[in-house]
UniProtKB/TrEMBL annotation:
Residues 66-109 form the NADH-Ubiquinone oxidoreductase (complex I) chain 5 N-terminal domain. This is Proton-conducting transporter membrane subunit. It is found in: Cell membrane; Membrane. It comes from Coprococcus intestinihominis. The chain crosses the membrane at residues 6-25, 32-51, 71-96, 108-126, 132-150, 162-182, 205-230, 242-262, 274-293, 314-336, 372-394, 415-438, 458-476. Belongs to the CPA3 antiporters (TC 2.A.63) subunit A family.
Length: 491
């Protein structure tokens, strides 16, 4: 297949989104049908492209002698691109119903669709310069989604989001410049492509630059102390928060760190150094902090936001072991977390959409009136806790295995931190379920009996994600086999 085909699924959503901005479709039904056809078609194109991969990179243009912009599909691209493509059509369906009574829906859906293409650009980037370009574009196209409601809280959250992202990309830029100057070839190569001979006398500087890059890209992955934008962004409509927390933005941060660690600097140069200890400790602090704050938070979506902060650092913790098993564990949790967290956020959105209730203490008795929504939340909660027979257990088992393989004190401490986080996750997820199904004394059914589950556009994705969570829990081997081939370079 010609390599230029890689560009098609990136451009198609972007062009359609721009056309929607220029030529708005006022009829909601026609607009939704048009967008869903484009999104589904694009997903089919992506999946076809992943099963018929071009053997060569596609060269777009160059920013300089050593700065070509290229697209390429390797194993990691297949994983992230496939994950995004499979989740986006369901997210769009949910957004149609959720945004039905909102203002400026045409603009919202336009940027929502553009974000699909830009995220695929991050996935299919052939080198770190190209990835950085799409990574920056991702910030720009998600800004209108965060500020969509135009409330005071939304404007404040958008400013905070922008400040954090600009700061993060500035730190990441340092690592990109250094790598571009001292790499053998700027293209992504599993095992890294840094010229170790050229920097042998300046290894501490190289390690410092890697740490800068880790924290720079880690801003999108909500690493402590650069996590504040994520809970604040919960003021955005739920399709956006699900997009930010489960699919596009935060996963792009984790994906970029995987590229930086395994495909640029290389684990041979990083393993056993002080830089590895720093990033391991940062991930552990974030896991502990996010889990603890999740228990304290009473706002429904913000509680899930702190859960996201914690779970993203599960991925970073696995990556920081800097071993093939660590990459397998990180990728498995990346996929599993995307499914169970988008389900949890969609449950929260369904409650808010149907009842206009935003806080946990307002959920008493809703489980009886919205059984599908709260059963889906129960399943995602058990999976987030790492209960056996659910998808979260599979990925957390792999993470623990990678940590124990590390055979160091920090590896054993990390296992204890994961146990603590699992306990906190059980508390902050099950308290929601308990309030919904076992209301407090004095609860009156007539206060909630008017509420119902949403229609199939919102309920359908919840059922699908719940089924996937259970199926992966019972039968994860095909997913793990695919990830293992990525980690050893077969794909």
């Amino acid at each position: 297949m010609p390599s230029y085909f890689i560009l098609v699924p990136i451009l198609l959503p972007v062009i359609v989104g721009i056309l929607l901005l220029i030529f708005p479709i006022e009829d909601a039904k026609k607009r939704n049908i048009c967008i869903e056809i484009v999104v589904v078609l694009n997903t089919i194109l992506v999946l076809w492209l992943l099963t018929h991969r071009p053997t060569e990179s596609f060269y777009m243009f160059s920013l300089g002698a050593r700065l070509p912009l290229t697209l390429n599909i390797d194993g990691l691209s297949m994983f992230f691109g496939g994950l995004v493509a499979c989740l986006w059509p369901l997210a769009s369906l949910y957004a149609f119903e959720y945004m039905k009574h909102e203002e400026r829906v045409n603009t919202f859906m336009a940027f929502y669709t553009i974000t699909y293409g830009v995220t695929l650009g991050v996935a299919f980037a052939g080198n770190i310069i190209t990835m950085y370009l799409f990574y920056e574009c991702l910030t720009m196209v998600t800004l209108p989604l965060v500020i969509h409601t135009m409330t005071r809280e939304a404007r404040k959250a958008t400013r905070q989001y922008l400040y954090y992202m600009i700061g993060g990309t500035a730190f990441a830029f340092i690592a990109i410049v250094f790598y571009s100057l001292f790499c053998n070839d700027i293209a992504f190569v599993l095992g890294g492509n840094l010229n170790l001979a050229a920097i042998s006398n300046h290894m501490d500087i190289a390690l410092l630059v890697y740490v800068f890059g880790f924290f720079g890209f880690g801003v999108k992955a909500a690493i402590f102390p650069f996590h504040g934008w994520l809970p604040a962004a919960s003021v955005a409509p739920t399709p956006v928060t699900a997009l930010l927390h489960a699919v596009a933005v935060v996963k792009s941060g984790a994906f970029a760190i995987m590229r930086l660690t395994y495909y640029c600097f290389g684990t041979e140069a990083l393993h056993g150094t002080w830089a590895q200890v720093v990033v391991l400790i940062a991930a552990l602090i974030t896991i502990t902090y996010g889990s603890t704050l999740g228990v304290r938070e009473t706002h429904f979506k913000r509680r899930l936001a702190y859960s996201t902060i914690s779970n993203l650092s599960y991925i970073l913790l696995a990556v920081a072991t800097m071993s093939p098993l660590g990459l397998i564990a990180g990728l498995s949790h990346m996929a599993v977390h995307a499914i169970m967290k988008i389900s949890a956020f969609f449950c929260a959105g369904a409650v808010m959409h149907q009842t206009e209730k935003n806080y946990i203490y307002e959920l008493d008795g809703l489980g009886f009136e919205m059984p599908v929504t709260f059963m889906a939340l129960f399943i995602s909660g058990l999976s987030l806790m790492g209960m056996p027979l659910f998808a979260g257990f599979v990925s957390k088992w792999n993470i623990v295995h990678a940590l124990l393989e590390h055979e160091s004190m920090i590896g054993y401490i990390s296992v204890l931190v994961l146990l603590y986080s699992g306990l906190m996750t059980g508390i902050y997820m099950l308290t929601i379920i308990v309030r919904a199904w076992f209301p407090h004394v004095g609860y009156h059914k007539d206060l909630v009996e008017e509420f119902r589950d949403p229609n199939w556009l919102m309920k359908g994705p919840l059922v699908i994600f719940s089924v996937l969570t259970v199926v992966i829990g019972f039968y994860a081997q095909p997913l793990l086999d695919f990830i293992q081939k990525i980690a050893v370079g077969i794909y």
